[in-house]
Amino acid sequence: MSNLNIVVIGTGMFATGRGTTGFGTVLPAISEWKRLEKNIGKVVFVGTNGKRSAQVKEKFDTLCKDTGISLDIDIYPKDDEQDSKAYIKIISEIPRPACAIVVVPDHLHFEVLRECLYKDLPVLVVKPLTPTIEEGKKLIKIAKKRNLHAVVEFHKRWDKANLMLRDTIQKDRIGDLLYCWVEYSQRKSIPTEIFKAWTEKTSILQYLGIHYIDIIRFATGATPKRVMALGQKKWLPSQGLDAYDSIQCFIEWTLPNGNTFTQTILTNWIDPESTSSMSDQKIKIVGTKGRFESDQKDRGVTINVDGCNIEQPNPYFCTDFGDGAGKVKWRGYGIDSIISFLSDVDKINLGISSYESSQEDRPTFLESLISTSVVEAAHESLAQNNIWKEIKI
């Protein structure tokens, strides 16, 4: 049994639930990995502002109490210290971490991942890989040279609805693909509160829509041929943010057999706070034999109680469920995605699987360069009067 020391770089919403009433996804996933009787060493969460470390510690203490799972955890920076490079010291210490989970703003991915790879750390990074193809290629080269398991946390690949989509397409049940339509949006608090510090350094397509670019790649094996995008800046500029409220992206894909189909992605992050879910998401694919439709917001559950808005929770992403002993267990495809990474690293360390086999059917850096190429081309289209841009990887 291997001893897995883990460093999590980033202490925000997805990592710990900081700023929300929840616990994020990464912290519960590591807890569930421990529940599987895996031998975890030290888990270090490292941010940039020591004043926030106390909030993370509070999240951790509550989670341990709720789950009954204890972890050897540490949090940096300490007290009132501020250090944007604190992670460099942590990944250089002895004993060195066995892997890193990177949960930082998009524009910081390249520099943080580069440091981790140079320290020979297997890495899992939240999407996107990088904002640009150039940065992504540099990281791919480093990871390949050092034989490092390096993947992007595209958790929707573990969603059973999307696995069903993939199987339906691969079994040729809907025939030759003609077009795909996606609608994906989130509440106004995402760009104006939770991610306000870096809203202007990303876009709603790069932050959110990229999930469904990756899913089409995953489900079809197709390669993007060209891209065109349109966008609107109305409400966010009125809030002092130079960012698109909404982006519509049009992609032409080429299948392995040479056939083409189109994908339309409609994204925004200015939904009302009263909307029944944090994410409103739907996907539809039409072929010559039929169609596949998936409402990934309406998962069949509605909660309506006094004093609250109607809720439509997704019980399949990252949810805590009580057990008979009065404790909670975390389940969902968000948990599965992170546990799969930890399991891959553990098996490589134990010699159970090889670096090469661990790349199969995973959103590796090389595989994730596809979605990065689409987003970069879409941004270029927006900047160049919405012209079509050829994809060149």
Primary descriptors:
393 residues; 7-stranded mixed β-sheet; alpha/beta
Task: Characterise the protein shown here.
The protein is an alpha/beta fold and 393 residues long. 35% of the residues lie in helices and 24% in strands. It has 13 helices and 15 strands. A hairpin with a 5-residue loop joins strand 13 and strand 14. It is globular, with a radius of gyration of 21 Å. The mean pLDDT is 95.
Q: Which SSEs are present, and which pair or pack?
A:
Elements: E1 4-9, H1 13-16, H2 26-35, E2 40-46, H3 53-67, E3 72-76, H4 86-92, E4 99-102, H5 109-118, E5 123-126, H6 133-145, E6 150-153, H7 160-170, E7 177-187, H8 189-194, H9 204-220, E8 223-232, H10 235-238, E9 246-254, E10 260-271, E11 279-287, E12 291-295, E13 319-322, E14 328-331, H11 333-350, H12 355-358, H13 365-383, E15 389-390
Parallel strand pairs: 1-2, 1-4, 2-3, 4-5, 5-6, 7-10
Antiparallel strand pairs: 7-11, 8-9, 8-15, 9-10, 11-12, 13-14
Shape: globular
Largest sheet: 7 strands, mixed
Instruction: Give helix and strand order, one letter per element, not per position.
Output: EHHEHEHEHEHEHEHHEHEEEEEEHHHE
User: Structural class per helix/strand content?
Assistant: alpha/beta
Number of helices: 13
User: From the alpha-carbon coordinates, what is the Rg to the nearest angstrom?
Assistant: 21 Å
User: What's the arrangement of strands in the largest beta sheet?
Assistant: 12-11-7-10-9-8-15
Helicity level: 25-40%
Q: Name the poorly predicted regions.
A: none
